[in-house]
Amino acid sequence: MEDVKDSRLKKFCAKNKVVILGFVCVIAVIALIAVGLTQNQSLPQNVKYGIVLDGGSSHTTLYIYMWPAEKENDTGVVTQLGECLVQGPGISKFAHKTHELKTYLNACMQKAKEIIPVVQYTQTPVYLGATAGMRLLRLENENLADEVLEKLTEVLRSFPFDFQGARIISGKEEGAYGWITINYLLGKFTKKLRWLYPLGNETNNEETYGALDLGGASTQITFVPQNQTIESPNNALYFRLYGKDYNVYTHSFLCYGKDQALLKKLIKDSEAIANPRHWKLSGMPEKYP
């Protein structure tokens, strides 16, 4: 009896061999497609975003950054996603028209909303650092400077990001941030993600570059002294970046930026023009004053 059953089963399998093979092939194709789709899907990245507004004396620039949550030697590896030049003068020029600051910043803040994922809005910090233009305004009229910062705080808090503060940074901070930026871009701090450093040779991480930052209202010079000693404590800053300590000299020269230099030149020329003794027409005989 069992021989009869085996004979029937063999006959069934023989007749339906093509069907069975076809079914197996279909299952294999479905499995391959599923694996391919899984491999092509972008894995969720554990990344963070940040917005920095550089409030310079002559203009404001918004920068958008991204970095992985995992740090390298306790320091983040940052990538710039975009930037936006705010149309108009520096924020110090709004001292008597603070009501215009909302319109002033709106276009670039909207661009940030387009670049950063919506789900990351509330976790994205926003910082504004004002430089020499606002330092000068604070020296001239501290109340007006405070009003500008208060309005900036109100405006930036109206956007769906995590506002962290708007303040006037010192000349030392400005010089230090510039030094960190240039050496980071030149690959002097980390060898990770070498494609981030198209500007320089990242193979020598022992030495750093000095930075000379010529701004609109001030100039900063910052570098690491060769003998690692700084005579003036007021010009010394200490950093620990990517697992290494840095002893940095920095000094800011207020009123020695290009715009301030031009202003001084114009004032000097106007004073010369106002003095008749400085008038001398081309081709006039020497005996005439």
Automatic annotation (TrEMBL):
Q: Which cofactor does it need?
A: Mg(2+); Ca(2+)
Task: Report the catalytic activity.
Answer: ITP + H2O = IDP + phosphate + H(+); CTP + 2 H2O = CMP + 2 phosphate + 2 H(+); GDP + H2O = GMP + phosphate + H(+); CDP + H2O = CMP + phosphate + H(+)
Give the transmembrane ranges.
18-37
Q: By its UniProt entry, which Pfam families does this protein fall under? A: GDA1_CD39 (PF01150)
Subcellular location, record wording: Membrane, Caveola; Membrane
Which EC number applies?
A: 3.6.1.5
Name under which the protein is recorded: Ectonucleoside triphosphate diphosphohydrolase 1
What taxonomic classification does the UniProt entry list for its organism? Eukaryota, Metazoa, Chordata, Craniata, Vertebrata
